[in-house]
Design a protein that fits this description.
Radius of gyration of chain A: 18 Å
Largest sheet of chain A: 5 strands, parallel
Structural class of chain A: alpha/beta
Number of helices of chain A: 10
Oligomer: homodimer
Largest interface: A-B, 22 and 22 residues
Chain lengths: 201, 201
């Protein structure tokens, strides 16, 4: 039996998205990344930019609000936050897509959302900070923030988001079947390994 | 350039030791596991049993003592504990062995101790609790404690030990170049992947 669904979680700047796209191409699987954002945007009515930013990252504003959400104010209704609504819809879209058949899904806690399906193969791509910093400058150019600061910020917010909704630690090897340091192993070899395993298992 | 040194860290019951032995055999590398314990025992004067138990696992007694070590009592000298001494000697033995050339080293925080060498390849082997529980019963038989309890206990003590001496989280994918779920991927395939990468990188 081959694995029908491959989830690829990745550190910012590790090349995980490029690897995922290549894996999908080689296996002839559907590839859900921007497509996923588009669908979630349609289902929720939120803009694609909003979904992209808030469906994987904790934002300082919302998380500060969450920290004080136990304080109730007279006349103010308590209820799920916008983040919680987005999470619920994102979860539903991912579960539905998985039903449609062979695909590669990038990020968005899909490893957790699909953890009980036995036809999934969960991959985590990471790399050393130096390799990631070089890659984001090459790919996205420089900005006012140093690349190290950008990595730190993204890592921290992704970790917070993952922890909040999954109650697991982001980046723990035990959450994945295969974890690869793409800087050390090389992107092409990562692609080959994932493709081979997806076909063999 | 091939990788001269392969460190294999593993969850109890994941088959990591068996995989490590097979990798060493296929690559024709020296294999340090019991051999390492023997050397540390010779250098420290501690028994092999003591080294085996205290060189990777936090023991309740010692760690309770450590928790109160900031309290000083008149006339009692503060100094490194027996665990700290064992750690220092273990570290020295591992650094020396790495100098000797091609080898596979199992456990004992070797991934951390050798993290600055560029000729090392760091691997983490894990598996789902169910697969590990079945394996330890098959391998070590049953005992009064349930296999789940034995796994929990070992995991917790290993995590504590690793955290104390390395200040890193045990099992984080980022600490390794390659992390594999041996239950899902299969031991033979794990061996092949490690061997191929060690030769290719």
């Amino acid at each position: 039996m081959s694995k029908n669904i491959i989830t690829i979680s990745r550190e910012f700047g590790s090349g995980g998205r490029t690897i995922a796209k290549e894996v999908a191409k080689k296996l002839g699987y559907a590839y859900y990344d921007k497509e996923l954002v588009k669908q979630i945007s349609m289902e929720t009515g939120f803009s694609e930019g909003f979904v992209e930013e808030n469906g994987e990252y904790a934002s300082a504003k919302n998380w500060l609000a969450a920290a004080f959400s136990h304080l109730s104010f007279p006349g103010v209704m308590a209820g799920p936050s916008m983040d919680d609504f987005l999470w619920a819809m994102q979860r539903k879209v991912i579960l539905d897509l998985a039903e449609k058949g062979k695909c590669v899904i990038v990020g968005r806690c899909a490893d957790f959302i699909l953890k009980d399906r036995t036809d999934c193969f969960h991959v985590f791509i990471h790399a050393d900070p130096k390799a990631r910093a070089e890659r984001i400058v090459r790919r996205y150019g420089t900005s006012e923030q140093s690349p190290e600061k950008r990595l730190d910020d993204k890592d921290r917010r992704r970790r917070l988001y993952y922890k909040h909704y999954t109650e697991r630690e982001w980046g723990m090897a035990q959450n994945y079947h295969l974890s690869l340091n793409s800087g050390e192993i090389g992107q092409e070899r990562c692609v080959e390994m994932i493709v081979q395993l997806a076909q063999a298992l």
